[in-house]
Amino acid sequence: MTDRLMLLDTASLYFRAFFGVPDSMKAPDGTPVNAVRGLMDFISRLVGEYDPTHLVCCWDDDWRPQWRVDLIPSYKAHRVVQAKPGSTPDVEEVPDPLETQIPIILSVLEAYGIAVVGHPEMEADDVIGTLATDAGMPVDIVTGDRDLFQLVDDEAEVRVLYVARGVSRHERVDNAWVRDKYSVDARQYADLATLRGDTSDGLPGVAGVGDKTAATLLNRFGTIDAVVAAASDPDSDMGPGPRGKIKQALDYLDVAPEVVAVRRDLDLGSPDLTRPRTPADPDAVVALDERWGLGSSAVRLVEALSGPH
């Protein structure tokens, strides 16, 4: 059996579960559990299909790190709930029925023994980037977030299972997929996103530069640093249109690459990432099932985790 690491972008999956699974799915006391059960079913499906030997729920300890905001103040600003007097600022806008389910999700993951890994002042993306780098085994990153395409590496056998169209219709993203979709290699994707911008993350991009122009510049010059150097070099063969746009955006391009780049060097300690074959706390699994009405989702997850290797 070849070792294989599956890294789950947990928030991406539980948001998807919350909005995709009917809110009529409730616990006996009426508490919604659609995100809890949806996430459990997603994990069961993915483990059943890919049979990873190692499994991690990567966690947003900080969904909007201050160090990224300091560099680009608009970073994820549109997702911030307007702070009320005396309240904590920069709280992510999360529907109340989902907010109440997040502690339940953590309790379920703990009971089953599925590793949850986060890092102070870092996003799950940064945890994923660190665990996927030099993992020593093939890696499947499960996410609905395009940002993580930058981690795709055919040689290191790192790919993304992209769930934007749904977990059951996910796409396997390798370098050829990225190049076919965006006309750049995966290692250039972060630079493409920086140039193009990303409204979902509050990244303005370079005004007037979209996917096509960004890809053309990166295919010609290779990297953002080389693009900026060419724009500043009167003897380069960059056209006057792109040259002017790049020069107008030099302040942004000086800081944006650090914001967009996923960290790969965090000290995460030495967590046990081995996929549990049996629940870590069977009594807790039973108690959680009884309290929250997890039903067939609980059974499926036990069966999936104990299934083939």
List keywords for this structure.
309 residues; alpha/beta; two-stranded antiparallel ribbon; 14 helices; 8 strands; elongated; 5-3_exonuclease; exonuclease activity; exonuclease; hydrolase; DNA-binding
Spatial strand arrangement across the major sheet: 5-2-1-6-7-8
Helix and strand pattern: EHHEHEEHHEHEEEHHHHHHHH
How big is the Rg?
21 Å
Shape: elongated
N-end to C-end Cα span: 7 Å
Largest sheet: 6 strands, mixed
**Residue runs with pLDDT of under 50 for 5 or more positions:** none
The assembly state of the depicted protein chains is single chain
DSSP strand count: 8
In what range is the share of β-strand residues? 5-15%
User: What share of residues is helical?
Assistant: 40-55%
GO molecular function: exonuclease activity
Keywords: DNA-binding, Exonuclease, Hydrolase, Nuclease
InterPro entries: 5-3_exonucl_a-hlix_arch_N, 5-3_exonuclease, 5-3_exonuclease_C_sf, DNA_polI_H3TH, FEN, HhH2, PIN-like_dom_sf
Pfam families: 5_3_exonuc, 5_3_exonuc_N
